[in-house]
Structure formats: structure tokens, C-alpha cells
Amino acid sequence: MKKYHFPIVVEVDEDGVYIVSCPTFKGCHSYGSTIDEALENLREVIELCMEEQATESVNQFIGVREIEISVPISA
């Protein structure tokens, strides 16, 4: 069995729900009340994406960067 490694983006919303995404596949997102739950849910979504799309044709992950933006403070 071949193993794959995919990048994952983890965020938390204002309600404390963890939102996870895999940028390798378009529309590959899930969520959970804990990071572990969110990642397990995302694992299922990734498996479904892999069934639908050949792994040779997925987006190529390059890396993560941050951008700084200055916003004026309103009075």
C-alpha cells in the first residue's frame, strides 16, 4: 500500500470549531470540535477526493507564507 502525505491548514472559528483544509484537493474541507476530530473527518474527505481524482493530477503544494497588511485604526 502506498502512503501519501498531504499539507493541512488548521483554523479555529469564533465558536471554537476547528476547520481543516487540504489545499491539494479543491473543496477538501472539514471541521470538528477538537483538532483530532477535525483531522479524522478530513481524512475521510481526502480519501473520497482520492477516489474521484487521480493523485497524479492533484494540485502541487508549494508552501505556506504570511503577508503583512497595515490597516489604519478607525477613531
From TrEMBL:
Domain HicB-like antitoxin of toxin-antitoxin system: 6-57
Listed SUPFAM superfamilies: TTHA1013/TTHA0281-like
Protein name, per record: Type II toxin-antitoxin system HicB family antitoxin
Annotated organism of origin: Mucilaginibacter dorajii
